[in-house]
Amino acid sequence: VQLQASGGGLVQAGGSLRLTCAASGRTNSNYAMGWFRQAPGKEREFVAVISRSSGITYYADSVKGRFTISRDNAKNTVYLQMSSLKPEDTAVYFCAAASTRWTEVPTTGYSYWGQGTLVTVSS
After folding, report:
1. Which helix (H) or strand (E) holds 6?
2. What is the C-alpha to C-alpha distance for residues 76 and 21, in angstroms, rounded to an integer?
3. pLDDT per position as a tens digit, 84-115
4. How much is the pLDDT for 28?
5. Are 39 and 89 a contacting pair, CB within 8 Å?
6. What is the pLDDT of residues 53-65, one digit of tens each?
7. Dihedral angle over CA of 59, 63, 66, 69, nearest 10
8. Which of 8, 4, 5 is closest to 118 using CA atoms?
9. SS3 state at 1
10. What span, in angstroms and rounded, lies between the C-alpha atoms of 92 and 76?
11. Are the CB atoms for 122 and 10 separated by under 8 Å?
């Protein structure tokens, strides 16, 4: 599966952005889909994941209550709605796919990665 992330940009603190991850190849309903981010000088970290069934989501504590992950399997697309953005959310955001059981929400073990999209939050 090939993944293409988009939707990054420059936003003021407190603002919102929606990231989109478009999948091609095998349909993304075969995979749990996750978002990760990597800030300058830091390691890549888990942000959010949604199960194949779309019924289960899991978030990093740092984004819980502010970010929402969703998916549209008919469109092979995953979204990350980001609200109440903070300067510390500045990072390159990556989408990824993991082959899992129907309701699993992994934070590691992803096999497929898209290119990143840069999100910059100004104070």
Report:
1. strand 2-6
2. 8
3. 999 999 999 999 999 988 899 999 999 999 99
4. 67
5. no
6. 878 999 999 999 9
7. -40
8. 8
9. coil
10. 22
11. yes
